Amino acid sequence: MKLVVQVKLLPTPGQAAALAATLPLCNAAANDVSAVAFAQGVFARQKLQKLVYADLKARGLSAQPALHVIRKVADAYTTLHAQIEAGLLGGEHSSRRRKAESKPITFRNDAAQPFDDRCLSWQMDARTISIWTTSGRIRGIAFTRPHPRHRLHRRARTAQIPGGPPQGRNRPGAPRRDVLAERDL
Description:
Blueprint: E1 2-10, H1 13-40, H2 45-58, H3 63-85, H4 95-101, E2 113-116, E3 120-123, E4 128-133, E5 136-144, E6 158-161, E7 178-184
């Protein structure tokens, strides 16, 4: 069982710009990896890693984010193939299935990106995080804790920077500034 805690970030304008540039680059890289996987029919993580890892590093992704992009693509194809196998996209000649099989999987520009404890760390006493971005590691991003059970993410090993439109009282069109921390119970 996993426990997920949402934590709101309070970045400075410079930190916010670096965070905002990270998701589009990671998702553009995921789209390129997906195109390679589709064109070559290679969907296994390790084989895909051998094909695209050097290119991802050349684009400016560090080692762990590059591996997370590869995993994200491989997992998306695993899910797609499982849905096809289970018949969830229709029979062999259904238009829905043919459409899904005819093109590479694409990722929205603001799709979520996973991080692990090598890319994101918590400084609980200072109420800050340190996170990898495309501009390098940024330290000292303040956060608020929305719930008294905040200690639950003290030992969080994975997290996601969620994409999509902002929720709550954020302004429409403003970038999301939160982290979803996950912890196994």
